[in-house]
Write a structure and sequence with these properties.
The complex is a heterodimer of chains A (about 800) and B (about 260).
Chain A: H1 16-20, E1 36-42, E2 48-54, H2 56-59, E3 64-69, E4 105-106, E5 112-118, H3 121-128, E6 132-137, H4 144-148, E7 162-168, H5 173-181, E8 185-193, E9 205-211, E10 216-221, H6 226-238, E11 245-248, H7 264-276, E12 280-283, H8 286-292, E13 299-307, E14 313-325, E15 352-361, H9 375-393, H10 397-404, E16 413-414, E17 420-421, H11 426-436, H12 442-451, E18 455-464, H13 472-477, E19 486-492, E20 498-502, H14 511-523, E21 530-533, H15 551-577, E22 585-588, E23 591-594, E24 600-602, H16 603-611, E25 626-631, E26 640-649, E27 656-666, H17 673-693, E28 723-726, H18 746-765, H19 780-788
Helix pairs in contact in A: 9-18, 14-15, 15-16, 17-18
Chain B: E1 5-7, H1 12-19, E2 24-27, H2 33-38, E3 46-49, E4 59-62, E5 65-69, H3 74-80, H4 86-93, H5 98-101, H6 106-112, H7 119-125, E6 129-132, E7 136-138, H8 139-142, E8 157-163, E9 167-174, E10 181-190, E11 193-199, E12 207-208, H9 210-218, H10 243-260
Helix pairs in contact in B: 3-4
The chains are: A alpha+beta (about 800), B alpha+beta (about 260).
Chain lengths: ~800, ~260
């Protein structure tokens, strides 16, 4: 019987009422009295030396308040990178300066050269056209191999385009090399994980404000983590202490990682508001988003999988070039390393693994975390090479996976790449997948496709991800420059309603619905008596924000801990009211009872007593009912699953239709099944986008060719199949109190390999078995070309 | 977008008079012009809108042909030619998205002559007559290369007359992002004569594939073009397809148009 409230109920997303009726309050809806507008004059060349900037004519424009250039930021810090990676040789990564406005050189198309603040956005743009910039164009370096092979230097002072050369685990390298050398079979695959533009529906916006009466700066911004922005911008860029800096991220229309990072425009608006004593607003155009939002993926990899004659995995060796773009975005350096190398074991027992990653500077937009962040890249190469190996060895793709799965009784399982998986049951999700994908019926469907002249294929994929980022002490050892806990404050009001304040941030996830469900379950009060407050550093406790499928696992656990504290205190108040010992008080369904008696007192009466403490143990207990808890997880969480995709390929045109998609996930315990369904649907849609359509393509001069929706293909409703998703296989997380694992990224991680595997399978069955790989996106043109060769 | 003025005449004479002035620009549905202006790539001082002129709107059937006012929106063409000229209706129904179809017009599309637009293929394959406030053109004389037409300064299309073919079909292979035609082929057959027009493929814009017309006029079956070779030379190359791919699609889509013509 499905529950209708609390933990496990498909409560409808309460925030959708305002989103769907146009009542959301996004950053661009915020207008501060007297605000001015900034337009950024951006580089239209990928690489060049700024010879001169003449702002004289523009400054004379009557609506212009001030024009800023790099020189104005000489005394201000640069945008920081939040994760220091140590290379194979024990040396720290190369970390170039990342100025708010370009100083001396421009390094990618879109690099900001000048910022024009004027009375209106249109006038700021008019004035920008009057600025004369003399840039001596330099040869650009776009290709990563060329960048490492003597190409032009993106940062002259670094004397190299190599950010780091990372080996993981370096001590295992020789053993892995030896194992691969003598292995009976080695399958090798070269592949690219295509560069993506994040394309959140809401472009980025920043409004900087300054209150001279108390010297407080306020930044309204489209962020997934306002506390982190406050920390980074205040401490590293503008030197504004936290108590004088407030960051507000109101309703945010999608992030997918791109709104984690601290961007130049945020620092600029905050800085300029202090300088001008006026609020300054910036709203990105879509064209600007394409060349300023941090891009995702962009890895070029060679993977080798060594197997014995029975298809058992012996060793994996990978070598990856990871594009950093022109500067290090906030978490860019952690993505190809700790979020990628640690996942190379996948769902399998592989005794020996070695991962090498070279991070490379190029004259392109910075690259950073994008839904899945490192884990899709790991999963893609592993699951593609497994499929290729299965084909080479003549083993069924399901069978080869099952043969190598970590078995249920092997958990907790320590991988050779530093993680310890707490729970999982990969055979169970595969069993479930075979059922929901109706794999038995595939041959019939194959025959039907054949009769229409189409090639049909079935693609499988298994994935594991490390979510719930993360134990702070662990990530600290790995180079993180921040902790990764969460916190929550529960404020119980006098009449018994509850305000939950969280440092997590919702930008589409549905926290306003799901977080109260946890509290409702524990307190036994109606969900509509519980409100979630988030997104404002002034009225929420410190939190690290929402990404990495961490919010319910870490933020939700903090809420649980705070609620436990509330219950413990409320029991003491109830005990006083019932003249009993607190040890004898039981609490369920919103009522406190003395065990073994008919004495009881309602939740609301206890709350009232806490705030109107006329009859209250004031000498032993403070009045009020408000508690804060911080939660730092003991381990990552490890959601896992098995996905299947069926495609039809038109051999005449190369066009691929995705006919069906099935996902069997293990997310541990589930707070709201409907919200989880939605997260998986959205993730799969995004994965289909990457696999079939999306690609950020630069020409050799560093111009983004797919710089608008005329050329950058986003998935639309008719690109998507009907999806069957199931999350009934549940091995609860063993180390967080909710038993949850997180579900936000699974779909985007698990779907691309399934799709590519399906297309290769279709081609193989259709007589094109020479095609063993096609790089994403699988556009009709690419598939057709593959068939031709 | 820079500042501009808008005039919205209600008759052809006023429109012609306004367009005779300097720095004016005709606008129909604005589906290309408005985005161009928003990105500040066009800066007309005055826009003269044709959408207030009732006499150049609407679909009117007559003996053996259908005449469509230049300011008729795609959605109206799609709805009103469905039984008269199904291939044309289906073309109109698959342009852009609903927002585009509710604003964009047939005259605007033809006058813009985007090399990947659908309507030029229909006009050329359909042997349409394109009338302006000054004269009349056959489609063969109207299209002159990428974004180029026979229209002179201040001249605008008023109506398009399509002879109704015995059979026709339009096959569009969509560019994945814009959903313009990566290649589109419109085939008509009337009194045994076949015309084949190709959009999206050539660096010269929409064109007739005359070898295929000849072969199909003799034998209206897909097999009739099996031995024809479409050269890759002169075909558009971009991130969505090579010249060879486009050339290949021209033949595939022509075959499919023949198969599906009705």
């Amino acid at each position: 019987m499905p529950k209708d409230f609390g933990f496990g109920a498909s409560s409808k997303r309460r925030e959708d009422v305002r989103f769907l009726t146009g009542n959301g309050r996004y950053t661009d809806d915020i207008n501060v009295y007297g605000q001015a507008y900034v337009h950024f004059l951006r580089s239209d060349v990928a690489h060049g030396t700024i010879k001169s900037i003449n702002t004289e004519r523009a400054a004379a424009h009557p609506a212009v308040l001030r024009i800023f250039t790099g020189a104005d930021f000489a005394s201000v810090g640069g945008l920081p990178c939040g994760w220091q990676v140590t290379d194979r040789f024990g040396e720290p990564m190369k970390e170039p300066a990342h100025p708010v406005l370009a100083q001396g050189k421009v390094r990618h198309v879109g690099d900001p050269i000048a910022a024009i603040v004027a009375e209106s956005a249109a006038e700021a743009r008019d004035a920008a056209e009057m600025i004369e910039v003399d840039i001596e164009e330099l040869p650009a370096v776009i290709d990563m191999r060329a960048a490492l092979d003597g190409g032009p230097l993106v940062h002259d002072d670094l004397e190299t385009n190599l950010c780091y050369d990372w080996g993981f685990i370096e001590d295992n390298k020789d053993e892995v090399d030896a194992a691969i050398k003598k292995a009976p079979h080695v399958t090798r695959l070269d592949l690219t994980n295509n560069r993506l533009v994040p394309n959140a529906m809401e472009p980025r916006v920043a409004v900087g404000d300054y209150n001279s009466s108390n010297d407080e700066s306020i930044l309204y911004t489209t962020s997934q983590n306002p506390h982190v922005i406050r920390l980074l911008m205040g401490a590293f860029v503008l030197s504004i202490p936290e108590h004088k800096l407030r960051v507000v991220a109101p309703d945010v229309g999608g992030g997918f990682g791109s709104k984690i990072f601290h961007y130049a425009e945020e620092a600029f608006c905050t800085f300029a508001a202090r300088e001008l004593k006026r609020a300054v607003k910036w709203t990105a155009s879509r064209s600007e988003s394409f060349i300023t939002d941090a891009h995702g993926r962009d890895h070029v990899t060679t993977i080798e999988l060594a197997l014995d004659h029975d298809g058992n995995f012996i060793a994996i060796r990978t070598s990856t070039l990871a594009n950093m773009g022109a500067y290090l975005s906030t978490f860019s350096t952690s993505v190809p390393t700790w979020l990628h190398g640690t996942l190379m074991a996948g769902n399998y027992v592989t005794p020996l693994i070695y991962v090498n990653v070279k991070a490379v500077f190029t004259n392109t937009v910075p690259v950073d975390a994008y839904r899945g962040a490192g884990r899709p890249e790991a999963t893609f190469q592993l699951e593609r090479v497994i499929d290729k190996a299965a084909r080479e060895l003549g083993i069924d793709p399901i069978e080869i996976r099952r043969r190598n799965f970590i078995a249920k009784d092997q958990f907790p399982y320590a991988t050779p790449v530093a993680l310890e998986y707490d729970t999982g049951d990969y055979h169970a999700t595969m069993d479930k997948l075979e059922e929901i994908a109706d794999l038995k019926g595939f041959d019939n469907r194959l025959a039907q496709s054949k009769s229409k002249g189409k090639l049909r294929g079935l693609g499988l994929n298994c994935y594991i991800e490390a979510c719930g980022l993360a134990p702070s002490n662990l990530v600290g050892q790995l180079g993180a420059r921040a902790g990764l806990y969460e916190s929550a404050t529960l404020r119980v009001n006098a009449t018994g309603s509850v305000t939950v304040m969280t440092g997590s941030h919702s930008h589409g996830q549905g926290h306003e619905t799901t977080f109260p469900q946890v509290v409702s379950e524990m307190l036994g009060i109606a969900e509509d008596q519980i409100n979630l407050q988030h997104g404002d550093t002034a009225n929420t406790p410190m939190g690290m924000g929402t990404y990495g499928s961490r919010s319910i696992a870490v933020g939700g656990s903090a809420i649980l801990r705070a609620t436990e504290k509330i219950i413990a205190k409320a029991k003491k108040i109830a005990a006083h009211l019932m003249e009993a010992s607190a040890d004898d008080v039981e609490f369920s369904d919103g009522t406190f009872r003395v065990a073994g008696t008919d004495k009881e007192v309602a939740w609301a009466d206890v709350c009232l007593a806490a705030y109107v403490p006329h009859n209250y143990p004031l000498t032993e207990l403070e009045p009020g009912l408000e508690e804060t808890a911080f939660y730092d997880p003991a381990n990552f969480t490890y959601p896992a699953g098995a996905y299947a995709c069926e495609v039809e390929v038109d051999p005449e045109t190369g066009k691929v239709d995705i006919c069906s998609f099935a996902a069997a996930d293990d997310f541990g315990r589930i707070v709201n099944p409907m919200v989880v369904d939605g997260q998986v649907h959205g993730g799969i849609a995004q994965g289909i986008g990457q696999a079939m359509l999306e690609s950020a393509i630069y020409d050799e001069d560093g111009q983004l060719l797919s710089g608008s929706y005329m050329d950058y293909a986003m998935p639309r409703a008719d690109d998507l199949p009907s999806m069957v998703v199931d999350h009934s296989c549940q091995t609860p997380c063993t180390h967080n109190p909710l038993g949850v694992k997180g579900c936000g990224e699974a779909g985007a991680i698990g779907s691309p390999p399934a799709i590519v595997n399906a297309v290769i399978d279709a081609l193989s069955r259709g007589g094109y078995s020479h095609v063993d790989h096609i790089d994403m996106p699988l556009s009709p043109h690419r598939v057709w070309e593959a068939i031709q060769t | 977008m820079y500042d501009f003025a808008v005039e919205r005449p209600t008759n052809l004479d006023d429109a012609s008079r306004l367009l005779a002035k300097d720095e004016t620009q005709v606008i129909a549905g604005g589906q290309t012009l408005i985005p161009t202006m928003k990105s500040r790539l066009a800066s007309p001082k005055t826009l003269v809108s044709l959408t207030g002129i009732d006499e150049i709107k609407g679909v009117s059937p007559s003996q053996g042909s259908v005449t469509i006012g230049a300011a008729t929106r795609h959605v109206d063409v799609a709805n009103e030619t469905r039984t008269l000229y199904p291939a044309l209706a289906s073309l109109a129904a698959n342009i852009g998205d609903p927002a585009v179809r509710n604003r964009g017009t047939i005259g605007g599309s033809l006058a813009n002559n985007d090399p990947s637009a659908c309507y030029p293929a229909a006009a050329l394959a359909g042997d349409a007559e394109i009338k302006t406030q000054e004269r009349s053109y056959s489609a063969d004389d109207f299209f002159c290369g990428l974004f180029e037409t026979a229209l002179s300064e201040g001249e605008f299309i008023t109506e398009i007359r399509f002879p109704i073919p015995d059979r026709a079909s339009y096959q569009k292979f969509e560019q994945p992002a814009s959903r313009f035609a990566l290649v589109g082929v419109f085939v008509t057959q009337k009194s045994g004569q076949v015309r084949v027009a190709v959009t999206g493929a050539s660096e010269e814009g929409v064109y007739r594939w005359k070898e295929a017309e000849q072969a199909l006029s003799d034998d209206f079956r897909r097999e009739a073009i099996a031995d024809l070779i479409v050269p890759a030379e002169g075909k558009i190359v971009d991130i969505h397809g090579s010249a060879a791919y486009r050339a290949h699609l021209v033949k595939v889509l022509t075959g499919r148009a023949v198969d599906s013509a009705h």
